[in-house]
């Protein structure tokens, strides 16, 4: 049964909810280059369980993406995450919030990766 909400309203709620949580902005800032949840947890100095919860919320909101998997130092397969946006603007002047996103391009991701090497 539908709640009567549009996809846009649901997306707005999901994005605002994800951004409103503690550490979400820090995770997005740290995820400019591909990083595992463990690396993000260590960089930001937050508990790994909290980091995983925030990552899931940010992925659901479309602000973070899983770029693939790699082997950890302990030989386990781990997901690698990177933010999908560089800027996000929220306009509250209407009845529903409106978002303007500056998405990261693949070219920018590749350049960032080269600079990190």
Automatic annotation (TrEMBL):
User: What protein name applies here?
Assistant: ArsR family transcriptional regulator
Q: Per the record, where are the segments of Polar residues compositional bias?
A: 108-117
Q: Where is this region: Disordered?
A: 94-117
């Amino acid at each position: 049964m539908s709640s009567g909400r549009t996809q846009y309203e649901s997306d707005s709620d999901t994005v605002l909810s994800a951004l409103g949580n503690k550490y979400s902005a820090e995770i997005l800032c740290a995820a400019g280059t591909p990083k595992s949840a463990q690396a993000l947890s260590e960089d930001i100095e937050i508990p790994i369980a909290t980091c995983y919860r925030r990552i899931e919320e940010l992925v659901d909101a479309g602000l973070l993406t899983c770029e693939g998997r790699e082997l950890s130092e302990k030989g386990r397969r781990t997901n690698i995450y990177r933010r999908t946006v560089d800027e996000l603007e929220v306009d509250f002047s209407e009845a529903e919030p409106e978002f303007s996103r500056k998405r990261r391009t693949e070219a920018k991701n590749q350049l960032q990766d080269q600079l990190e090497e």
